[in-house]
Amino acid sequence: MYISNEGLVVILFVGLVAGWLAGKVVRGTGFGIIGDIVVGIAGALVASFLFPKLGIRLGTGLVSEIVYSAIGAVILLVVVRLVRGGGRF
Fold it and tell me: 67 partner at 20 to 30 Å CA-CA among 4, 45, 52, 58?
């Protein structure tokens, strides 16, 4: 699989925005800019696996990718907080 430089910038941008949004929704779990990008990208992977299985479709384009990634990152952060933080929100 080949990813162009522009594609890589878009992936990093979506990951950053999604990780930042997830950090705001799930307070107290900010991981810094690199951590937020990683959480956002991991959230995108979680969402791309989970949403089609559930039949959820939000549309196309950059905004929908950010929403997908942010929702996946929120799910990921909640799971991490439950495992690491002893189950307290």
Answer: 4
In this prediction, residues 50-73 reach a mean pLDDT of 81
Q: Is the pTM of this model over 0.90?
A: no
**How buried is 55 (Cβ within 10 angstroms: 0-12 exposed, 13-18 middle, 19+ buried)?**
exposed
Domain locations along the chain: 5-84
Question: DSSP readout, 6-72?
Answer: HHHHHHHHHHHHHHHHHHHHSTT---HHHHHHHHHHHHHHHHHHHHHHHT----SSHHHHHHHHHHH
CB 30 within 8 A of CB 60: no
